[in-house]
Design goal:
Elements: H1 11-62, E1 65-68, E2 75-86, E3 91-98, E4 120-128, E5 174-177, E6 188-192, E7 197-204, E8 207-213
Antiparallel strand pairs: 1-2, 2-3, 2-5, 3-4, 6-7, 7-8
């Protein structure tokens, strides 16, 4: 039999090398894919956080009242910024509310502190979560960031701010910013990919922070 050249490889050896390379590339690809998903989820959560702060700044710039000409010389009309969430559609929008329908006549519901359907609403921003992510508490087992209470059942929370029946909220989770940038109540906005969950948490009225859980402690 002719001996094998020291510089050559048998077919079996080549197949073994190719197989090992395929395994290594598969492992590396899986790691890169998971890292990219982690980055994408954090980026989506950061976008929500940035939009909440942007809406907050719009409320501060607008103030609680705007001055308009009136027969008596000047009239102050109440206004605020609302962020309305649609968890089923994984979307949200910010609306500037002005407590007047613009017809020049005072209404019974003007200056009562609550919007009505005849009032003026201007969309300031609209956004949606990327595909594969949703407003849901996912694998998190305790409330966002502090973990002060259990989520039961797991995956049952999405956006925990109040759901007023008046416009523009209309029964959906809603954040109301006043002219100082404060919110009327605290709550959590959960964003998940099913494996881990980020939360935009309003620990104090007007203060937002970001935290993450993969089912264990928040960090």
């Amino acid at each position: 039999m002719r001996g094998r050249s020291e510089a050559g490889f048998t077919l079996i050896e080549l197949l073994v090398v190719i197989g090992l390379m395929a395994i290594l590339f598969g492992i590396a690809g899986g790691v890169m894919s998971d890292q990219f998903r982690r980055w994408s989820l954090r980026n989506a959560a950061n976008r929500v956080l940035e939009d909440m702060r942007a809406a907050q700044m719009e409320a501060i710039k607008a103030g609680d009242y705007q001055s308009v000409p009136a027969a008596t010389g000047e009239q102050f009309i109440q206004q605020n910024v609302f962020v309305v969430f649609d968890p089923a559609a994984n979307s949200y929008r910010a609306e500037l509310w002005v407590d007047d329908d613009g017809d020049g006549n005072p209404e019974a519901t003007d200056n009562n502190g609550y919007p009505d359907a005849a009032d003026s609403f201007t969309t300031l921003l609209e956004n949606s979560l990327p595909n594969g992510f949703s407003f849901n508490s996912g694998p998190a087992t305790t409330s966002a960031c502090s973990g002060s209470s259990a989520i039961n059942p797991v995956g049952s929370d999405d956006v925990t701010f109040s759901r007023p029946n008046y416009p523009p909220c209309n029964g959906k989770p809603c954040i109301r910013f006043d002219g100082r940038g404060k919110v009327s109540s605290v709550g959590n906005i959960y964003i998940t990919d099913g494996r881990r969950t980020y939360a935009v948490n309003s620990l104090r009225p007007g203060f937002f922070r970001l935290c993450m859980s993969d089912g264990g402690n928040w960090r």
